[in-house]
Amino acid sequence: MIGQNAPDVFPDFWNYFEEIITKQHEDGITVSGKASLLLMERQAGFLEETYFDWKLVPVIGDDGLFLGAYGIPTDNTERVIGERRTLCVQNLSQRIAKTTSFDALWNHITLGLLEDSKDVPFALLFADQDALRARGTPPIDQTGNVKLVGSIGVPDGHRLKNLCWTTEAGGDGLPSAVMHAVQSSQISILSTDSAEVAQYLTGIDWKGSGVPCKQLAIMPIFAGARPLAVLVAGINPHRQYNDWYRDFLQHITTLISTQLSALRLSEELKHRAELASKAVKNFERSELRFERFAARSMVGLGMASMHGNILYANNVWCELSGVDPSKAIGCDFRDTIHEDDLPLVEQHWHNAVVLKQVVKFTYRSKAPWRKDEMYLPQRTLYATCYADIDEDGTVETITGLVVDISEQKWTEGQLLQRSRELEESEQRYRSFADLCPFGIVSTDAQGKVKWGNDSWHDFYSFKKGQVVDEQPWLPYVHSDDVDKAKQYFRTLQTTPGAHTAELRLKKKYTIYEGDRMRENDFFILIVGNQEYKDSLKTVIDSIDFWIIDISAQKMAEKILTEKMEEAIRNRTSQEHFIDMISHEIRNPLSALLTCAESICQSLSQIDPQRGPSNGALSVAKGMFTAKAKNEAIYNDILEAANTIIWCSNHQKQIVDDVLTLSKLDSELLVVSPVPVKLTDLMRSALKIFEPELRMSEIGLEMLDHESVALNGINWILLDPNRFLQILINLVTNAIKFTRGVSGGKRIKIVTSIHKERPHHFEELDFVPRRYNPLERRGSTIGPQLEDADQIYLRVSVSDTGKGLSAPEKKLLFNRFAQASPKTHVEYGGSGLGLFISRQITEMLGGEIGVGTSPSGGCTFAFYVITSKIDAPQSSYLQPPIAPAVSRTMSAPVTLLPTKDGKKGNGERTDVEKRKILVVEDNIVNQRVLCKQLRNRGFDVEASNHGKEALAALEKAQASEEGYFDVVLCDIEMPVMDGIQCVQEIRERERDGSLPEHIPVIGVTANVRSKQVDAAVEAGMDGVTTKPYRLDDLIAHIDRLLLEDSST
Are 942 and 920 in contact (CB under 8 A)? Predict the structure, then answer.
């Protein structure tokens, strides 16, 4: 090696010394090391673990330069490894010496070996569980269950954690190698190169240097002749396995075997000590048990001499015999026996003593017996006596066992008494059943009668003793109910429990109402129940029936049903009558209103100072010349037209109120909340009063209280139709009572928002509620209001009219009630408006009231429940109940020219000429409507019924003029009504006969919701009710045509 390059000579650890020598070249200081670990290749391909003490002395030349380093190594490998192994053995010995259980032993073995992880980098500790649990020395050939009890380097979840086998079956791979080593009783070395062993070592966390072991040492651990455990230890991969290594492992095995034997011996000694202790305790316990048995037994125990003197008696015997326990020993047992039973006891005593027989008998003692409410003057005892005989056959003592059967005797006496009472009760029950008005019968499982009372026989006119057939009632059951009766009996046969049925018999039930006879079927109600012979309810003992005559109830139900149907027919007739009257009134009213508007329109084209203008009516030309100046005649005609309009609207309002009242009485009025914009809704509705307010010179002011802005109210959830019905009624009343006063005539409407329910405001009191909105059908404000942020909307309508006195206020808000008898004369009206407003207000969850002063006008106010919502994507200013249905308000509305000759409404000049088909069977209404529409710029054609309308549509389709823009169709017509007509139109549109959708507006005098809904469902795009204002009708047409063009 001298003269060779150092890295080539010492390649295994040169890197370690190269850094030291390089640093020494710089500082020239001697460096040393103690027991440094060096992996040295002493044999080809094997890096051996070595430990050296070394010193490197720098060699300095004469010129002071570093020439090299002189190394002085000392090999301490055996000393270091020997000390390490000795320390491991010492620590292991100290650890396992303190263990007192097998589990603790396994744990400390693992921890002790882990302290020398270089020599034991991997370990598996197996134990024979059956051999460890065996008492004494287990046989060598006894089968055992081997299980892993400790390990080093085996991670959780590894397959070795669950490795186990039986000593008889062994196994493949590692278990097989372990069992071979155990049989040899010596330490065996196993190479890890074999595939059978390597498969178990995948994923092992090798301790020490972290290099996998090439060899495994298998060490059987004996305690006696049989191995109880096996230690599999990994051999240090950097040390050769030699005698020194084997001695180290053998020392470990000896330590474990010694402690294992000590533990087994300790366990065995402990077990034997426990057995001895248990045997002593059992003997003592047996003696004590007998003493306690005698003392605590519920049985009296006594021992007597052959002459009858007591030698021993427990407390129970003393209590049963009526003897003081302190005086029992030595007394004669005969003194405790009742005199009447003494001869019997003497006879049994003789048999026990002389004949040596076991005798059993019952006798009475002199002691009384009491338990709760139970009492006997003497106890009744049951005794068993036998002779105690020694080895010579001589009787030594007589032992007696006594049981108290007094309660049993008392129970027997009570049972006899109850049996007599039961017989008497059964007799009374039979008497009761025989006299009971209900039929009672008991049958067997097939329906054969066992017993039946008189009432049951009377139901079927049976005679007692002559009913022998199964289900004998079937021939008397109504023919339509026979199958039902059979099915009912089958149900009782198969289904446990009580069952009921209603059946009819063939006979009739008859009652008389004066001279009138009423007849109905004879009904019976049957209740049946089974009695079973067994607790599992599989064998029927009897089926019991109770039969009740319910013919009277059925007759009452029949009469009640007839009267209910009659009431429904009467209500339907009443509704039909109201509808007919409404229809007959609205038709001529429609003509009156349209004609009056026509007169007003014609007058608007005439200047009384200059005469008719171009286009005026020919009648007007005859009445007024160009130079006519008689303005009085003009005003008289204008006033007469206004009066006609006023009366028509007034009569229409009465008809509407009657119809609304009819709906309220029938609870058919419903509430349908929808999103509305409050301010726009109210202002739009109040526009209908502009002409009348202007004519009456009344100022109308609508204000929002500051609470509206503070709460950010814009959109709310509300039923606009019902809300406006209240508002318009109040405004109508305000106009009516303000029109005739002198001076300033004003009406003020104030809207406010409240978080809490309003109660009293200034001088205004709300009328007490009559109806709970949650109790009346159709009156709930909707679940959407319950979920939303609930608020209270209050509206007040104040006027400067004549006011009301206190007595007049009390009459308001009642049906057909007005403030005073002269109110109708002065102002008209039916007295229904405020009554209806009150009920609708309460339906909306609110209240209505009035405050007034005779000199200061009136203030009517109401509030309803609503909720604030966000602006919807689509909404309606005044949404109808059905889509596109327009209704006229129940309020007097006028559209008149002013006195200065300005036009209220003229011809249509802002839209192109529309073509309309009017379908109306009433010739007067037809002519008036056609004329008015033509005056407004429409091209109008008329038909008398539905068939003519269909013909007109076909003709228009074939002509060059094209289609009608809209059809105004009356609903009730001869030949073909409006419903049939619109259905035919829609059918032709579907099959292509009419290629485009034609808007159809229904015109009817029937205003009930179901009639309007039926028209919309039939295919009409909208419905207008008679009487109507022409402006409203034209607005409806324009809106419908706009919607149709957009779609």
Answer: yes
Cis link prior to 220 (omega < 30° from 0)? no
Residue 739: how many CA atoms within 13 Å on its side-chain side? 14
Q: How confident is the model at residue 586 (pLDDT cuts 50, 70, 90)?
A: low
What is the DSSP secondary-structure string of 422-435?
HHHHHHHHHHHHHH
- DSSP letters, 91-105, are HHHHHHHT--SHHHH
Q: Which of 834, 879, 890, 836 is nearest to 720 (CA)?
A: 879
Cβ atoms 145, 175 nearer than 8 A: no
The closest of 725, 659, 685, 672 to 890, measured between CA atoms, is 725
Q: Cα angle at 690 between 642 and 814, to 5 degrees? A: 80
- Find residue 217's DSSP bridge partners: 189, 233
pTM of the predicted model over 0.85:
no
Q: Where are the beta strands (DSSP E) in 694-738?
A: 699-704, 715-718
Q: What is the pLDDT of residues 625-669, one digit of tens each?
A: 444 445 656 666 765 666 666 566 656 656 666 666 565 555 556
Residue 168 DSSP label: T
Beta-carbon count within 10 A of 46 CB: 14
Q: By the 8 A CB rule, do 834 and 841 touch?
A: no
Locus of tokens 């091209």? 939
One-character DSSP codes across 330-348: T-BGGGGB-GGGHHHHHHH
The neighbouring-strand residues paired with 526 are: 501, 547
- What DSSP letter does each residue of 109-149 carry, written as one string? HHHHHHTTTTT-S-EEEEEEHHHHH-SSS--TT---EEEEE
pLDDT tens digits along 663-717: 555 555 667 788 999 888 888 888 878 877 887 888 999 999 898 888 888 899 9
